[in-house]
Specification:
By secondary structure, this protein is mostly helical. It is built from 25 helices and two strands. The longest helix has about 35 residues. The termini are far apart.
Length: about 550
Protein backbone atom coordinates (compact mmCIF):
# COMPACT_ATOMS: atom_id res chain seq x y z
CA UNK A 1 0.00 0.00 0.00
CA UNK A 2 1.39 3.39 -0.91
CA UNK A 3 2.21 6.11 1.57
CA UNK A 4 -0.64 8.14 0.10
CA UNK A 5 -3.16 5.36 0.86
CA UNK A 6 -1.80 5.05 4.37
CA UNK A 7 -2.26 8.78 4.78
CA UNK A 8 -5.90 8.49 3.73
CA UNK A 9 -6.74 5.53 5.99
CA UNK A 10 -5.10 6.98 9.10
CA UNK A 11 -7.83 8.26 11.49
CA UNK A 12 -7.83 11.97 12.01
CA UNK A 13 -7.79 13.53 15.42
CA UNK A 14 -10.99 15.39 16.23
CA UNK A 15 -10.55 19.12 16.18
CA UNK A 16 -11.44 21.13 19.22
CA UNK A 17 -14.62 23.05 18.45
CA UNK A 18 -16.13 26.10 20.11
CA UNK A 19 -19.30 24.85 21.78
CA UNK A 20 -21.36 28.04 22.02
CA UNK A 21 -24.32 26.45 23.83
CA UNK A 22 -22.27 24.56 26.39
CA UNK A 23 -20.06 27.55 27.23
CA UNK A 24 -23.11 29.81 27.47
CA UNK A 25 -24.82 27.40 29.85
CA UNK A 26 -21.74 27.27 32.09
CA UNK A 27 -21.45 31.08 32.12
CA UNK A 28 -25.11 31.47 33.12
CA UNK A 29 -24.62 28.93 35.92
CA UNK A 30 -21.55 30.82 37.14
CA UNK A 31 -23.50 34.11 37.25
CA UNK A 32 -26.32 32.48 39.23
CA UNK A 33 -23.98 30.77 41.71
CA UNK A 34 -21.51 33.66 42.12
CA UNK A 35 -23.42 35.48 44.93
CA UNK A 36 -23.58 32.34 47.07
CA UNK A 37 -19.89 31.65 46.51
CA UNK A 38 -19.10 35.27 47.45
CA UNK A 39 -21.07 34.99 50.70
CA UNK A 40 -19.17 31.84 51.68
CA UNK A 41 -15.86 33.55 50.85
CA UNK A 42 -16.69 36.60 52.99
CA UNK A 43 -17.66 34.32 55.86
CA UNK A 44 -14.41 32.33 55.91
CA UNK A 45 -12.17 35.38 55.35
CA UNK A 46 -13.63 38.10 57.62
CA UNK A 47 -11.71 41.31 58.21
CA UNK A 48 -12.95 41.48 61.78
CA UNK A 49 -14.04 38.07 63.03
CA UNK A 50 -16.97 38.64 65.38
CA UNK A 51 -18.19 35.03 65.18
CA UNK A 52 -17.29 34.25 68.83
CA UNK A 53 -19.14 37.40 69.90
CA UNK A 54 -22.20 36.47 67.80
CA UNK A 55 -22.12 32.93 69.14
CA UNK A 56 -22.12 34.10 72.75
CA UNK A 57 -24.66 36.93 72.40
CA UNK A 58 -27.23 37.36 69.63
CA UNK A 59 -26.88 34.29 67.40
CA UNK A 60 -28.62 31.85 69.80
CA UNK A 61 -31.60 34.23 69.97
CA UNK A 62 -31.69 34.61 66.19
CA UNK A 63 -31.59 30.84 65.71
CA UNK A 64 -34.18 30.14 68.40
CA UNK A 65 -36.65 32.65 66.98
CA UNK A 66 -36.05 31.44 63.42
CA UNK A 67 -36.49 27.82 64.49
CA UNK A 68 -39.72 28.54 66.35
CA UNK A 69 -41.10 30.46 63.39
CA UNK A 70 -40.18 27.65 61.01
CA UNK A 71 -41.66 24.91 63.18
CA UNK A 72 -44.79 26.90 64.04
CA UNK A 73 -45.43 28.01 60.46
CA UNK A 74 -44.66 24.55 59.08
CA UNK A 75 -47.07 22.87 61.50
CA UNK A 76 -49.80 25.44 60.89
CA UNK A 77 -49.58 25.26 57.10
CA UNK A 78 -49.36 21.45 57.16
CA UNK A 79 -52.63 21.21 59.10
CA UNK A 80 -54.52 23.88 57.15
CA UNK A 81 -53.23 22.90 53.71
CA UNK A 82 -53.73 19.16 54.18
CA UNK A 83 -57.17 19.33 55.81
CA UNK A 84 -58.60 21.79 53.29
CA UNK A 85 -57.15 19.79 50.37
CA UNK A 86 -58.71 16.62 51.77
CA UNK A 87 -62.10 18.25 52.17
CA UNK A 88 -62.31 19.71 48.64
CA UNK A 89 -61.15 16.45 47.01
CA UNK A 90 -63.10 13.94 49.08
CA UNK A 91 -66.39 15.71 49.78
CA UNK A 92 -69.09 17.89 48.28
CA UNK A 93 -70.40 20.70 50.46
CA UNK A 94 -71.83 24.22 50.01
CA UNK A 95 -69.36 26.53 48.30
CA UNK A 96 -66.88 23.79 47.36
CA UNK A 97 -66.83 24.76 43.68
CA UNK A 98 -65.37 28.22 44.35
CA UNK A 99 -63.62 27.53 47.66
CA UNK A 100 -61.21 25.06 46.04
CA UNK A 101 -59.85 28.00 43.98
CA UNK A 102 -60.36 30.70 46.61
CA UNK A 103 -58.02 28.75 48.92
CA UNK A 104 -55.17 29.79 46.58
CA UNK A 105 -55.90 33.51 46.87
CA UNK A 106 -53.73 34.22 49.95
CA UNK A 107 -50.71 33.62 47.70
CA UNK A 108 -51.47 37.04 46.20
CA UNK A 109 -50.95 38.80 49.55
CA UNK A 110 -47.32 39.06 50.78
CA UNK A 111 -46.93 38.14 54.43
CA UNK A 112 -45.66 41.61 55.35
CA UNK A 113 -48.81 43.17 53.88
CA UNK A 114 -50.92 40.80 55.97
CA UNK A 115 -48.92 41.84 59.06
CA UNK A 116 -49.62 45.53 58.50
CA UNK A 117 -53.31 44.86 57.98
CA UNK A 118 -53.62 42.62 61.06
CA UNK A 119 -51.99 45.16 63.37
CA UNK A 120 -54.13 47.97 61.98
CA UNK A 121 -57.26 45.85 62.49
CA UNK A 122 -56.52 44.64 66.03
CA UNK A 123 -54.38 47.44 67.49
CA UNK A 124 -55.61 49.87 70.16
CA UNK A 125 -56.83 52.39 67.57
CA UNK A 126 -58.19 49.70 65.27
CA UNK A 127 -61.85 48.89 64.67
CA UNK A 128 -61.93 45.84 66.97
CA UNK A 129 -60.72 47.50 70.17
CA UNK A 130 -62.50 50.75 69.32
CA UNK A 131 -65.75 48.82 68.92
CA UNK A 132 -65.22 46.99 72.22
CA UNK A 133 -64.67 50.28 74.06
CA UNK A 134 -67.80 51.77 72.52
CA UNK A 135 -69.94 48.73 73.36
CA UNK A 136 -68.82 48.26 76.97
CA UNK A 137 -68.09 51.89 77.79
CA UNK A 138 -64.38 51.38 78.50
CA UNK A 139 -62.35 54.58 78.45
CA UNK A 140 -58.79 53.28 78.00
CA UNK A 141 -56.67 50.12 77.83
CA UNK A 142 -56.48 49.82 81.64
CA UNK A 143 -60.19 49.01 81.75
CA UNK A 144 -59.84 45.73 79.84
CA UNK A 145 -57.37 43.08 78.70
CA UNK A 146 -56.50 42.48 75.05
CA UNK A 147 -53.72 40.19 73.82
CA UNK A 148 -50.52 41.69 72.44
CA UNK A 149 -50.49 41.79 68.65
CA UNK A 150 -46.82 42.22 67.81
CA UNK A 151 -45.57 38.89 69.10
CA UNK A 152 -43.72 35.89 67.74
CA UNK A 153 -46.89 33.81 67.58
CA UNK A 154 -48.75 36.54 65.71
CA UNK A 155 -45.91 36.43 63.17
CA UNK A 156 -46.43 32.66 62.86
CA UNK A 157 -50.16 33.20 62.26
CA UNK A 158 -49.60 35.88 59.61
CA UNK A 159 -46.89 34.00 57.72
CA UNK A 160 -48.86 30.75 57.93
CA UNK A 161 -52.02 32.40 56.61
CA UNK A 162 -50.05 33.70 53.61
CA UNK A 163 -48.11 30.50 52.82
CA UNK A 164 -50.47 27.57 53.50
CA UNK A 165 -51.52 27.47 49.77
CA UNK A 166 -48.12 25.91 48.96
CA UNK A 167 -49.09 22.86 51.02
CA UNK A 168 -52.71 22.95 49.87
CA UNK A 169 -51.77 22.96 46.19
CA UNK A 170 -49.42 19.98 46.42
CA UNK A 171 -51.63 18.01 48.82
CA UNK A 172 -54.68 18.57 46.64
CA UNK A 173 -52.83 17.23 43.59
CA UNK A 174 -51.64 14.20 45.59
CA UNK A 175 -55.14 13.38 46.87
CA UNK A 176 -56.62 13.73 43.36
CA UNK A 177 -54.06 11.27 41.94
CA UNK A 178 -54.91 8.56 44.47
CA UNK A 179 -57.15 5.66 43.54
CA UNK A 180 -60.62 5.50 45.01
CA UNK A 181 -60.29 1.72 45.45
CA UNK A 182 -58.03 2.09 48.47
CA UNK A 183 -60.58 4.21 50.29
CA UNK A 184 -63.37 1.77 49.43
CA UNK A 185 -61.34 -1.08 50.93
CA UNK A 186 -60.68 1.00 54.06
CA UNK A 187 -64.38 1.80 54.36
CA UNK A 188 -65.28 -1.87 53.94
CA UNK A 189 -62.89 -2.71 56.79
CA UNK A 190 -64.73 -0.30 59.07
CA UNK A 191 -62.47 2.75 58.87
CA UNK A 192 -64.35 5.99 59.42
CA UNK A 193 -63.60 9.37 57.76
CA UNK A 194 -60.91 10.32 60.28
CA UNK A 195 -59.23 6.92 60.09
CA UNK A 196 -59.23 7.00 56.27
CA UNK A 197 -57.66 10.47 56.40
CA UNK A 198 -54.94 9.56 58.92
CA UNK A 199 -54.19 5.98 57.84
CA UNK A 200 -54.68 6.11 54.06
CA UNK A 201 -54.78 9.64 52.69
CA UNK A 202 -51.99 11.34 54.64
CA UNK A 203 -49.43 8.51 54.35
CA UNK A 204 -49.89 8.34 50.58
CA UNK A 205 -49.68 12.13 50.21
CA UNK A 206 -46.80 12.55 52.68
CA UNK A 207 -44.09 13.29 50.05
CA UNK A 208 -46.20 16.10 48.55
CA UNK A 209 -47.07 17.50 51.98
CA UNK A 210 -43.41 17.39 53.03
CA UNK A 211 -42.39 19.23 49.86
CA UNK A 212 -44.96 21.96 50.51
CA UNK A 213 -43.90 22.35 54.15
CA UNK A 214 -40.25 22.57 53.08
CA UNK A 215 -41.10 25.45 50.71
CA UNK A 216 -43.07 27.17 53.50
CA UNK A 217 -40.13 26.88 55.90
CA UNK A 218 -37.72 28.31 53.32
CA UNK A 219 -40.05 31.24 52.69
CA UNK A 220 -40.33 31.74 56.46
CA UNK A 221 -36.55 32.03 56.75
CA UNK A 222 -36.59 34.56 53.89
CA UNK A 223 -39.24 36.77 55.49
CA UNK A 224 -38.07 40.17 56.68
CA UNK A 225 -41.01 42.56 56.57
CA UNK A 226 -43.26 40.60 58.94
CA UNK A 227 -40.67 39.78 61.59
CA UNK A 228 -39.22 43.28 61.47
CA UNK A 229 -42.68 44.83 61.96
CA UNK A 230 -43.39 42.46 64.87
CA UNK A 231 -39.91 43.08 66.36
CA UNK A 232 -38.94 39.41 66.20
CA UNK A 233 -35.18 39.03 65.79
CA UNK A 234 -34.38 36.27 63.30
CA UNK A 235 -31.36 35.29 61.24
CA UNK A 236 -32.56 37.50 58.38
CA UNK A 237 -32.98 40.58 60.57
CA UNK A 238 -29.57 39.73 62.02
CA UNK A 239 -27.97 40.20 58.60
CA UNK A 240 -29.49 43.67 58.36
CA UNK A 241 -28.38 44.57 61.90
CA UNK A 242 -24.80 43.30 61.63
CA UNK A 243 -24.13 44.67 58.16
CA UNK A 244 -26.17 47.86 57.84
CA UNK A 245 -26.01 48.99 61.46
CA UNK A 246 -22.79 47.37 62.66
CA UNK A 247 -20.91 47.69 59.38
CA UNK A 248 -19.40 44.21 59.67
CA UNK A 249 -19.46 42.34 56.37
CA UNK A 250 -17.82 39.17 57.69
CA UNK A 251 -20.29 38.81 60.56
CA UNK A 252 -23.26 39.32 58.23
CA UNK A 253 -21.83 36.73 55.83
CA UNK A 254 -21.38 34.26 58.69
CA UNK A 255 -25.03 34.66 59.67
CA UNK A 256 -25.91 34.24 56.00
CA UNK A 257 -23.97 30.95 55.95
CA UNK A 258 -26.01 29.76 58.93
CA UNK A 259 -29.14 30.48 56.88
CA UNK A 260 -27.70 28.63 53.89
CA UNK A 261 -26.94 25.66 56.14
CA UNK A 262 -30.55 25.64 57.35
CA UNK A 263 -31.80 25.75 53.75
CA UNK A 264 -29.49 22.92 52.67
CA UNK A 265 -30.72 20.80 55.59
CA UNK A 266 -34.35 21.49 54.66
CA UNK A 267 -33.79 20.62 51.01
CA UNK A 268 -31.86 17.50 51.99
CA UNK A 269 -34.56 16.31 54.40
CA UNK A 270 -37.27 16.89 51.82
CA UNK A 271 -35.39 14.94 49.14
CA UNK A 272 -34.51 12.18 51.60
CA UNK A 273 -38.17 11.79 52.61
CA UNK A 274 -39.14 11.36 48.98
CA UNK A 275 -36.28 8.95 48.31
CA UNK A 276 -37.29 6.67 51.16
CA UNK A 277 -40.95 6.65 50.14
CA UNK A 278 -42.15 4.40 47.35
CA UNK A 279 -45.78 4.51 46.30
CA UNK A 280 -47.27 2.82 43.25
CA UNK A 281 -50.73 2.68 41.80
CA UNK A 282 -51.75 0.01 39.33
CA UNK A 283 -52.15 1.42 35.86
CA UNK A 284 -55.11 -0.91 35.20
CA UNK A 285 -58.63 -0.07 36.32
CA UNK A 286 -57.61 3.06 38.19
CA UNK A 287 -60.75 4.77 39.44
CA UNK A 288 -60.49 8.36 40.67
CA UNK A 289 -61.82 9.37 44.03
CA UNK A 290 -65.56 10.13 43.93
CA UNK A 291 -66.42 12.98 46.32
CA UNK A 292 -69.07 12.08 48.87
CA UNK A 293 -71.83 14.57 49.61
CA UNK A 294 -71.89 15.88 53.18
CA UNK A 295 -75.23 16.54 54.83
CA UNK A 296 -76.40 18.69 57.71
CA UNK A 297 -73.97 20.23 60.17
CA UNK A 298 -70.99 18.35 58.71
CA UNK A 299 -71.43 20.12 55.37
CA UNK A 300 -71.38 23.57 56.97
CA UNK A 301 -68.42 22.66 59.17
CA UNK A 302 -66.48 21.75 56.01
CA UNK A 303 -67.50 25.03 54.38
CA UNK A 304 -66.38 26.99 57.44
CA UNK A 305 -63.07 25.09 57.65
CA UNK A 306 -62.25 26.04 54.06
CA UNK A 307 -63.61 29.59 54.35
CA UNK A 308 -61.66 30.68 57.44
CA UNK A 309 -58.18 30.46 55.82
CA UNK A 310 -59.42 32.54 52.88
CA UNK A 311 -60.87 35.15 55.23
CA UNK A 312 -57.69 35.36 57.30
CA UNK A 313 -55.19 35.21 54.46
CA UNK A 314 -56.91 37.27 51.78
CA UNK A 315 -60.23 38.91 52.64
CA UNK A 316 -59.13 40.58 55.89
CA UNK A 317 -55.90 42.14 54.55
CA UNK A 318 -57.52 43.34 51.33
CA UNK A 319 -60.55 44.74 53.18
CA UNK A 320 -58.37 46.66 55.66
CA UNK A 321 -56.20 48.08 52.88
CA UNK A 322 -59.21 48.97 50.74
CA UNK A 323 -60.80 50.89 53.62
CA UNK A 324 -57.66 53.05 53.79
CA UNK A 325 -57.34 53.49 50.03
CA UNK A 326 -60.90 54.65 49.26
CA UNK A 327 -59.98 58.33 49.08
CA UNK A 328 -58.51 59.63 45.82
CA UNK A 329 -55.80 61.49 47.73
CA UNK A 330 -54.05 58.22 48.60
CA UNK A 331 -53.79 57.25 44.93
CA UNK A 332 -52.37 60.60 43.89
CA UNK A 333 -49.77 60.73 46.66
CA UNK A 334 -46.28 61.84 45.54
CA UNK A 335 -44.01 59.01 44.52
CA UNK A 336 -46.63 56.30 43.99
CA UNK A 337 -46.68 56.56 40.19
CA UNK A 338 -42.89 56.60 40.02
CA UNK A 339 -42.68 53.55 42.28
CA UNK A 340 -45.19 51.71 40.08
CA UNK A 341 -43.34 52.49 36.84
CA UNK A 342 -40.00 51.61 38.41
CA UNK A 343 -41.38 48.30 39.69
CA UNK A 344 -42.86 47.36 36.32
CA UNK A 345 -39.62 48.13 34.47
CA UNK A 346 -37.23 46.45 36.91
CA UNK A 347 -39.33 43.36 37.54
CA UNK A 348 -40.26 43.04 33.88
CA UNK A 349 -36.61 43.17 32.82
CA UNK A 350 -35.65 40.64 35.50
CA UNK A 351 -38.42 38.24 34.49
CA UNK A 352 -37.47 38.47 30.81
CA UNK A 353 -33.77 37.89 31.49
CA UNK A 354 -34.49 35.01 33.87
CA UNK A 355 -36.70 33.27 31.31
CA UNK A 356 -34.25 33.80 28.46
CA UNK A 357 -31.40 32.55 30.63
CA UNK A 358 -33.38 29.55 31.83
CA UNK A 359 -34.36 28.49 28.30
CA UNK A 360 -30.82 29.02 27.01
CA UNK A 361 -29.23 27.03 29.82
CA UNK A 362 -31.61 24.08 29.66
CA UNK A 363 -31.49 23.95 25.86
CA UNK A 364 -27.70 24.33 25.81
CA UNK A 365 -27.26 21.60 28.42
CA UNK A 366 -29.52 19.20 26.53
CA UNK A 367 -27.93 20.04 23.20
CA UNK A 368 -24.29 19.74 24.22
CA UNK A 369 -24.63 16.66 26.40
CA UNK A 370 -21.48 17.66 28.26
CA UNK A 371 -20.95 16.65 31.85
CA UNK A 372 -20.15 20.05 33.39
CA UNK A 373 -23.38 21.84 32.36
CA UNK A 374 -25.38 18.81 33.49
CA UNK A 375 -23.75 18.97 36.91
CA UNK A 376 -24.28 22.72 37.24
CA UNK A 377 -27.92 22.74 36.11
CA UNK A 378 -29.48 21.52 39.41
CA UNK A 379 -27.10 23.66 41.50
CA UNK A 380 -28.50 26.86 39.99
CA UNK A 381 -31.81 26.13 41.71
CA UNK A 382 -30.22 26.99 45.08
CA UNK A 383 -30.73 30.68 44.34
CA UNK A 384 -34.46 30.26 44.82
CA UNK A 385 -33.94 28.58 48.17
CA UNK A 386 -31.52 31.27 49.38
CA UNK A 387 -33.18 34.27 51.10
CA UNK A 388 -33.06 37.61 49.34
CA UNK A 389 -30.91 39.16 52.07
CA UNK A 390 -28.24 36.49 51.52
CA UNK A 391 -28.17 37.05 47.77
CA UNK A 392 -28.07 40.82 48.24
CA UNK A 393 -25.02 40.43 50.45
CA UNK A 394 -23.28 38.32 47.83
CA UNK A 395 -24.11 40.71 45.00
CA UNK A 396 -23.65 44.19 46.43
CA UNK A 397 -20.12 43.89 47.84
CA UNK A 398 -18.47 42.36 44.72
CA UNK A 399 -20.42 44.76 42.53
CA UNK A 400 -19.27 47.71 44.65
CA UNK A 401 -15.64 46.59 44.30
CA UNK A 402 -16.04 46.26 40.54
CA UNK A 403 -17.77 49.64 40.38
CA UNK A 404 -14.98 51.36 42.29
CA UNK A 405 -12.33 49.77 40.08
CA UNK A 406 -14.20 50.84 36.94
CA UNK A 407 -14.53 54.42 38.23
CA UNK A 408 -10.81 54.53 39.05
CA UNK A 409 -9.94 53.25 35.57
CA UNK A 410 -12.12 55.87 33.86
CA UNK A 411 -10.64 58.57 36.11
CA UNK A 412 -7.08 57.56 35.22
CA UNK A 413 -7.86 57.57 31.48
CA UNK A 414 -10.12 60.60 31.12
CA UNK A 415 -9.43 62.62 34.24
CA UNK A 416 -13.16 62.69 35.03
CA UNK A 417 -14.62 60.84 38.02
CA UNK A 418 -17.88 59.16 36.90
CA UNK A 419 -18.77 58.03 40.41
CA UNK A 420 -20.41 54.70 41.16
CA UNK A 421 -22.38 53.79 38.05
CA UNK A 422 -23.61 50.31 38.95
CA UNK A 423 -23.93 50.04 42.73
CA UNK A 424 -27.41 50.89 43.90
CA UNK A 425 -28.70 51.04 40.34
CA UNK A 426 -31.59 49.14 38.84
CA UNK A 427 -29.10 46.80 37.16
CA UNK A 428 -27.95 45.37 40.49
CA UNK A 429 -31.56 44.78 41.52
CA UNK A 430 -32.34 43.08 38.20
CA UNK A 431 -29.37 40.76 38.72
CA UNK A 432 -30.57 39.90 42.23
CA UNK A 433 -34.06 39.09 40.96
CA UNK A 434 -32.67 36.94 38.14
CA UNK A 435 -30.52 34.93 40.56
CA UNK A 436 -33.29 34.68 43.17
CA UNK A 437 -35.98 33.42 40.79
CA UNK A 438 -33.90 31.72 38.11
CA UNK A 439 -35.08 28.30 39.31
CA UNK A 440 -38.68 29.10 38.30
CA UNK A 441 -37.71 29.73 34.68
CA UNK A 442 -35.23 26.88 34.59
CA UNK A 443 -37.74 24.39 35.99
CA UNK A 444 -40.47 25.47 33.58
CA UNK A 445 -38.10 25.31 30.60
CA UNK A 446 -36.74 21.90 31.61
CA UNK A 447 -40.23 20.42 31.99
CA UNK A 448 -41.48 21.98 28.74
CA UNK A 449 -38.48 20.99 26.63
CA UNK A 450 -38.71 17.47 28.02
CA UNK A 451 -42.19 17.16 26.53
CA UNK A 452 -41.06 18.05 22.98
CA UNK A 453 -40.78 14.86 20.86
CA UNK A 454 -37.18 14.23 19.86
CA UNK A 455 -38.21 13.57 16.27
CA UNK A 456 -39.23 17.20 15.65
CA UNK A 457 -35.86 18.89 16.31
CA UNK A 458 -34.08 15.99 14.57
CA UNK A 459 -36.18 16.58 11.47
CA UNK A 460 -35.39 20.30 11.56
CA UNK A 461 -31.65 19.62 11.90
CA UNK A 462 -31.77 17.12 9.04
CA UNK A 463 -33.24 19.88 6.86
CA UNK A 464 -30.21 22.05 7.53
CA UNK A 465 -31.49 24.18 10.41
CA UNK A 466 -28.93 25.29 12.96
CA UNK A 467 -29.39 24.76 16.70
CA UNK A 468 -30.58 28.35 17.15
CA UNK A 469 -32.97 28.14 14.22
CA UNK A 470 -34.37 24.86 15.57
CA UNK A 471 -34.94 26.48 18.96
CA UNK A 472 -36.83 29.40 17.38
CA UNK A 473 -38.81 27.42 14.81
CA UNK A 474 -39.59 24.19 16.69
CA UNK A 475 -39.11 24.45 20.44
CA UNK A 476 -40.31 27.96 21.29
CA UNK A 477 -43.76 27.61 19.64
CA UNK A 478 -44.31 24.36 21.57
CA UNK A 479 -43.16 25.66 24.96
CA UNK A 480 -44.53 29.21 24.81
CA UNK A 481 -47.32 28.46 27.31
CA UNK A 482 -44.87 27.19 29.94
CA UNK A 483 -42.45 30.02 29.20
CA UNK A 484 -45.27 32.55 29.54
CA UNK A 485 -46.29 31.08 32.88
CA UNK A 486 -42.70 31.23 34.12
CA UNK A 487 -42.42 34.83 32.94
CA UNK A 488 -45.52 35.84 34.88
CA UNK A 489 -44.63 33.93 38.05
CA UNK A 490 -41.10 35.37 38.06
CA UNK A 491 -42.49 38.87 37.59
CA UNK A 492 -44.97 38.47 40.44
CA UNK A 493 -42.37 37.07 42.85
CA UNK A 494 -40.02 39.94 41.98
CA UNK A 495 -42.76 42.48 42.68
CA UNK A 496 -43.28 40.99 46.16
CA UNK A 497 -39.57 40.60 47.02
CA UNK A 498 -38.62 42.88 49.93
CA UNK A 499 -35.25 42.02 51.60
CA UNK A 500 -33.11 42.15 48.46
CA UNK A 501 -34.86 45.32 47.28
CA UNK A 502 -34.24 47.09 50.57
CA UNK A 503 -30.56 46.19 50.61
CA UNK A 504 -29.74 46.87 46.96
CA UNK A 505 -31.90 49.75 45.71
CA UNK A 506 -32.01 53.35 46.85
CA UNK A 507 -35.26 54.25 45.08
CA UNK A 508 -38.86 53.39 45.87
CA UNK A 509 -40.50 50.31 44.42
CA UNK A 510 -43.97 49.14 45.39
CA UNK A 511 -42.63 46.74 48.03
CA UNK A 512 -40.19 49.21 49.61
CA UNK A 513 -42.83 51.96 49.55
CA UNK A 514 -45.24 49.72 51.45
CA UNK A 515 -42.51 48.87 53.95
CA UNK A 516 -41.41 52.48 54.44
CA UNK A 517 -44.92 53.86 54.94
CA UNK A 518 -46.04 51.01 57.20
CA UNK A 519 -42.89 51.35 59.31
CA UNK A 520 -44.01 54.92 60.01
CA UNK A 521 -47.49 53.61 60.94
CA UNK A 522 -48.90 55.34 57.85
CA UNK A 523 -51.08 52.49 56.59
CA UNK A 524 -53.20 54.87 54.52
CA UNK A 525 -50.20 55.82 52.37
CA UNK A 526 -49.03 52.20 52.18
CA UNK A 527 -52.44 50.85 51.13
CA UNK A 528 -52.48 51.78 47.39
CA UNK A 529 -49.07 50.24 46.69
CA UNK A 530 -50.00 47.15 48.73
CA UNK A 531 -53.25 46.72 46.80
CA UNK A 532 -51.39 46.95 43.49
CA UNK A 533 -49.03 44.19 44.67
CA UNK A 534 -52.04 42.06 45.63
CA UNK A 535 -53.67 42.70 42.24
CA UNK A 536 -50.52 41.58 40.44
CA UNK A 537 -50.41 38.49 42.64
CA UNK A 538 -54.03 37.67 41.80
CA UNK A 539 -53.11 37.40 38.14
CA UNK A 540 -50.55 34.71 38.97
CA UNK A 541 -53.02 32.91 41.25
CA UNK A 542 -55.62 32.90 38.46
CA UNK A 543 -53.09 31.41 36.06
CA UNK A 544 -52.11 28.82 38.67
CA UNK A 545 -55.75 27.88 39.23
CA UNK A 546 -56.33 27.44 35.49
CA UNK A 547 -53.24 25.25 35.19
CA UNK A 548 -54.44 22.96 38.01
CA UNK A 549 -58.04 22.40 36.92
Amino acid sequence: MSDQSTQVLRPRRPRATFDFWSIGAVLIACVVMAPLIAVIWFAVTPTDNIWPHLLSTTLPRYMANTGLLMVGTGAMTAVIGTVTAWLVVMYRFPGRAWLQWALLMPLAVPAYVGAYALVDFLDYAGPVQTGLRDIFGWSNSRDYWFPQIRTRWAAVAVIGAALYPYVYLLARAAFREQSGAGYEVARALGAGPVARFLRVGVPLARPAIAAGVAVVMMETVNDFGTVDYFAVQTLTTGIFSVWRQGGNLGGAAQIACVILSVIVVLVGLEKASRRRSRFAVSARNVRPVTPARLQGAGAWVATLACLLPVLAGFVLPVAVLTSHALTAAQWTAPGLAEALVRTLLVCGAAALLAVLGGVFMVYGTRLSGRRLPQLLLPVTALGYAAPGAVLALGILVPMAAFDNGLADLILSITGNDPGLMLTGSAGVLVLAYVVRFFAISEGAADAALGRVPASLPMAARSLGRSAGQTLRAVHLPLIRASVGSALLLTFVDAVKELPATLMLYNHDTLSTRVYAKASLEDIAQAAPAALVICAVGLVAVTLLARANR
